[in-house]
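Subgroup meeting minutes
Present: P.N., E.W., G.H.
Scribe: E.W.

1. P.N. recapped why we're keeping a running log of single-chain structure predictions: easier to compare across weeks, and new members can see raw inputs and outputs side by side.
2. G.H. added today's entry (109 aa).
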Amino acid sequence: MRDDSNGTGSQESGTGGLPERDVTPSVPSGQKIDPADYQERVDRVTELFSSMMETATEQSTRRCPYKNRHAQCTATFGCRNQRKPEVGGDPLNCASDDKLDYRGAWESE
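Output recorded in log:
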């Protein structure tokens, strides 16, 4: 809800408790943007990124956090899943099968 009585324009809604920013796009003079069409596009982008975040969150429960996109180990400590690289000088390879649940290592009381 917007409170313009004090000029702060404070508003909060579906943004995880964060205040919403004014994201009204700038357009060349003479062109109009339909607020409903604009909101529809923002909602579609939000849905797209929400789906991506759900996938990333689900993967983070079982994929080693030290395994990069090239299946190389970035850990600075020893791990039983580290394998020698095919080319000398490259980072160690990660042989993890991504079936371990790593959440227990991060959870604390």
